[in-house]
Structure formats: C-alpha cells, structure tokens
Design brief:
Its cofactor is Zn(2+). InterPro entries: ADH-like_C, GroES-like_sf, NAD(P)-bd_dom_sf. This is Zinc-binding dehydrogenase. By secondary structure, the chain is an alpha/beta fold. The protein is built from nine helices and 21 strands. A hairpin with a 2-residue loop joins strand 4 and strand 5. Helix 2 crosses helix 3 and helix 2 packs across helix 8.
C-alpha cells in the first residue's frame, strides 16, 4: 500500500516522498491526515542522528538510523476501521500517534498519509468548537501536561520552568491551572512574551539577567523546578534556591550526560521526577484539557507548511536562531 511521508533520508536530509505502508489489520484504523505537528526537540535530535531510539543515544558501532519516517502525532478523518476497533467509526475526526511503516529503519512513524494506525493509538476527537488543528500536537502537549501534574502544588508556591519551548509552555499552563505561581526561564523574548500574554508565567530572560539573582531579589524560593531543555548545569545553579522537600521534574533529553548526584538531592530532600513517553490515561486527560481550553495550543503555532514542503520546514527549523516554535504540516494543501 502506498502513502506519502516526511522521510529523514540521512543526517540533516529531509524529503517528502512515497513510502510503503502495510495493509490494515482488524485492529487498525486508516486515517486520511489533515495536520501533523512537528516535535522540534525530539525530531531534531533524530534529524541530527543523535538517537537510536526514544531515550537511547546513537553510539559508535550502532547501525545508522536512516532512512526513517519522522514524527509521532497527527489529526484527520478515519476512513477505514478494522472489525476489532470499537471506539472509532469511519468518518470520525481522530487524533493518532505513530503509524505503521515498511522499508524504513523504524517500522513506525508519524508524518504519513494515509496512516495505518493501531486502534490503541487513535482517539476520537471531542465534539466541541475547538478546531482539529489544536489537537495535532497532543502527544507533545501531553509531555508538558505530564511535567505539570507530577509534583504536588500548594496555592501560590513558586514553580520555575526552565525552557521556553512547547513543553515548557504546556508545563507552565498546567502548573498555573493547579495554583502555582510560575516563572519561565528562557532565552527567546518572543516566546517568553507568549507565556506572559497568556497569563500563565512570569518571564525570566536568561540572556538579559541572572535568573537566580532575579529570584533572590524577589524573595522567591522554588518548590518546583521543571527542566524541559536537558540542562543539569542550569538546575545546579538553581538548586540553592529550592526549598527543602521540593521537586525536580527532568523532561529534557540528556543523552549520555544525565548523571545526577542523589546525595545532593537528599540534603534538601528533593524528589526527582523523570517523565517520558505517553499513556492512554494522560492522553485522555490532555485531549480533554485542550477541548476545555485548559491547555492552549493554537497560540503557540508560529509556522504552517504544506506537507510537500517539509524539506523547507526543516531548513528553517535547523537554521541558526530559527524563529520556529509550533510547526504544523498541512496535508490537504
């Protein structure tokens, strides 16, 4: 069966081309895709050849992980539903994660149309006024949501989110909805302004000032630090400002540089949370949060490309100082 897909042909080489996908099984849903959302952090790491799998770095001697179909999230219309699938019917608007692929390094991928997807990885979209595109990054939204629900939150407690990317924004939205006073530490003024305008985080620009000094001047002691960028150096600089019995949520990819000295955490009784991946209950909650407006996604979409122009999208994403935050591929244009 033929499909079109965004393929990483080799390191730093993206193409839009025809691929082979398997014939659907009884447990599969075939989806005509409308939008797929690029996960810039994760997909860029694969684009650069840094990973051999989700959390495992590519080391010398490992097989070269190309070609591969990029991505893991999309929305569209179910056009064929296997007899073993009960929660979706043809014509439903759906969200899906990874779909089945043939002839690639990985036997799954995200940016592919039509998408042959196991029914366990398909969610029927709620019947609300929220447009379908708002759900097209729901796995990544779930990562931010997962970061935000991990630590306990008392009203008014200080939570510091390290990173102004998408996961940082959704973590901040979740923590703010739970009653925390949220600071966002980043280096991109335009992204920090989005959080401030959305009312869910106080911006701290790491390019312009010492964030630790700013927090000290504000008399703020953090109960929660969420690292979305994979910088233990930044965490260590902030650790002296963390309260006893506080929480570190580590969500950024650390590769082979993720060693944590547990004894230093013990001195402050800091709890470490290490979220990864997605689960059905969290996806259910995330999709419900988008439908209810608790998780805001559309304001974070900065660029849209026709899927056939995916190589141009990746040129912009990979460029120094790229302006991209939320990047969506449109499959119907």
């Amino acid at each position: 069966m033929k499909a079109e897909a965004v393929v990483f042909e080799n390191r730093l080489q993206a193409a839009f081309r025809q691929v082979e996908v398997p014939e659907p099984r009884e447990q599969d849903v075939v989806i005509e895709v409308d939008y797929s959302w690029i996960s810039i952090g994760t997909e860029s790491s694969f684009f650069r050849g840094e990973r051999i799998s989700g959390e495992v770095p590519c080391r010398p001697g490992d097989p070269w992980p190309f070609p591969q179909v990029a991505g893991y999230q999309k929305v569209g219309r179910a056009v064929k539903v296997g007899g073993a699938v009960a929660h979706v019917k043809p014509g439903d608007r759906v969200f899906a994660t990874v779909s089945r692929i043939e002839g690639m390094f990985f036997d799954f991928g995200g940016h592919v149309n039509p998408a042959v997807t196991d029914g366990s990885q398909v969610w029927k979209l709620p019947e609300t006024d929220v447009p379908d595109i708002a759900y097209s990054g729901a796995v990544l939204t779930q990562v931010g949501y997962n970061c935000g629900i991990r630590p306990p939150v008392a009203p008014g407690e200080i939570a510091l989110v390290v990173g102004d990317g998408l996961v940082g924004h959704w973590a901040a939205q979740t923590l703010r909805a739970r009653g925390a006073s949220v600071y966002m530490l980043g280096r991109r003024e335009e992204r920090l302004r989005l959080a401030e305008a959305g009312g869910y985080a106080i911006p701290l620009n790491g390019r312009l000032s010492d964030p630790a000094a700013a927090l000290r001047e504000a008399g703020a002691a953090a109960s929660i630090v969420v690292d979305t960028v994979g910088s233990l150096e930044t965490f260590r600089s902030l650790q002296p400002l963390m309260k006893r019995d506080s929480h570190l949520v580590s969500a950024g990819y650390l590769g082979e540089h993720g060693a944590v000295d547990i004894q230093t955490l013990r001195e402050q009784e800091i709890t470490l949370h290490a979220p990864s991946g997605w689960t059905k209950p969290r996806m259910d909650e995330t999709i419900g949060g988008i439908a209810a407006g608790r998780l805001r996604t559309e304001p974070l979409i900065t660029h849209r490309f026709a899927a056939r122009d995916a190589a141009k999208a990746w040129e912009l994403i990979a460029a120094p100082g790229s302006p991209c935050l939320g990047v969506v591929l449109e499959w119907g244009s």
